Structure formats: C-alpha cells, structure tokens
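Example record for the data management plan.
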Amino acid sequence: MFQLRISLTFILLILSLAVKAQEESGYAVKYDSTIHNKWAPSGVRFGIDIAGPIYNLFEPKISNFEATADIDFSKFFVVVEMGQGAYNSTETITNYTNSGYFFRFGADVNMTSKDANLNALYFGLRYATSSFSEKLLATIPDSGWGETFVSEEQDKSRANWVEMNIGMRIRISNSFFAGYVIRFKLLKHNTYSENKFEPYFIPGYGVASNKTNWGLSYFIQYRIKWKKKPITWRED
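Corresponding structural encoding:
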C-alpha cells in the first residue's frame, strides 16, 4: 500500500513539474529586482501523518500519530514535528508496554524551488528527542522452585537521534498538499533508570537496540498563505 502511494505521488509530481511556469500563478510571483526580500515567509503549512494509523491496522503492537508544521524561507523550510507513539507486546511469559512523545526540529531544502505551484522534492535534516515510560511484567520459570514474577516500571526514559530525510510534496488542490518522507535515523543517546531494564522500543525511533532505523511518513497538509511566494521561473 505504501509503495503504491509513493508511486502515485511521484508520478503526479513529475507531471506537475513537466509544465513550465511562464506566467504568474495563483501561488507564486516572478522574482525580480522590485522584490526586496525573497526570504520573507509567504505561508505556513500544517499536516498530519496517515501512514502511522494505517500501519497500526497491520501491526497492532505499534501505534503512532504525528503532526507537522513548516514555514518557508526562500527555498528552505523550517520544520517542526511532534507525535505520540506506543508499543504493546504480550508474549507467553512477558508483557511489555511503552508509551510516550517525540519531537523533531530541523530544515528542508527544496530541490525544485522554481515550481510555480510550490510542489517540492526536498532533502532535510532533523534533530529528534523522545520521552517515554515503560512497564515490564515477566514470569520466569525456575526449576525446582516454581516461578519468579518480575514487575518493573520506569517513567524517565529518554532518547535522542538525528535523521536524514528525503521527500516529495505536491499540491492536490488550492490549499492542500500530500507527500511522503523517507527517514534514515541514527540513534545518538539513550538513557533509562539505573538498575532497571534497557528499553526495547523508542516512540518516533523504533527498536532501541538498532543503531539505525528507517521510517516512512505520509502527510496530508493544509497551507495558510498571506502572500504569493516570489520565485525565479525556470528557463525555456
């Protein structure tokens, strides 16, 4: 399902970029010497990820919801992303639950900044942090002595990582955009309560024992504009 959505997004973006912008559009104005500050933001965009809830239908152990916001500065975007994640695993002798919040902050650079419809193919960097709580219940068989019941909780677990992202975003109507982000995550730091268990899952990151993880977000976004964006048209 995700591959189909990615393919459709890619096709629509290529088709939209194939139309050359020769005149002022409803979203952008040609940049020239009379425009003194092309770096001034022209709008802010808000969105939600729909990939997480869909993935949860196929993998009930993991739930994830996140929202994003970005503001433009010429061909760059400052991006803030926030979300909530949880993991719930019940096995024969163990039960592990995890829930918490994560936050990402970073910037994207638009590789198609001359598109008059403000579609984008972009590369981005993020710094991310997560704060979460965990609970572990386990029944450990002990030959000759029956069973040992273990119950541990910790609510001050934290993790930090960095991400390298690549994504696409296309306009699907006047103010609505859709697009995906592929994330490469590199875990930098993971802390948890002393004398207790090491976290298995980090909200927003994934399996904690992996020093690197991949992720996919598919956002539906709404853009609020206060002026047309000044851009340089593509040459014939």
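Summary line stored alongside the record: Residues 15-22 have pLDDT under 50 and may be disordered.
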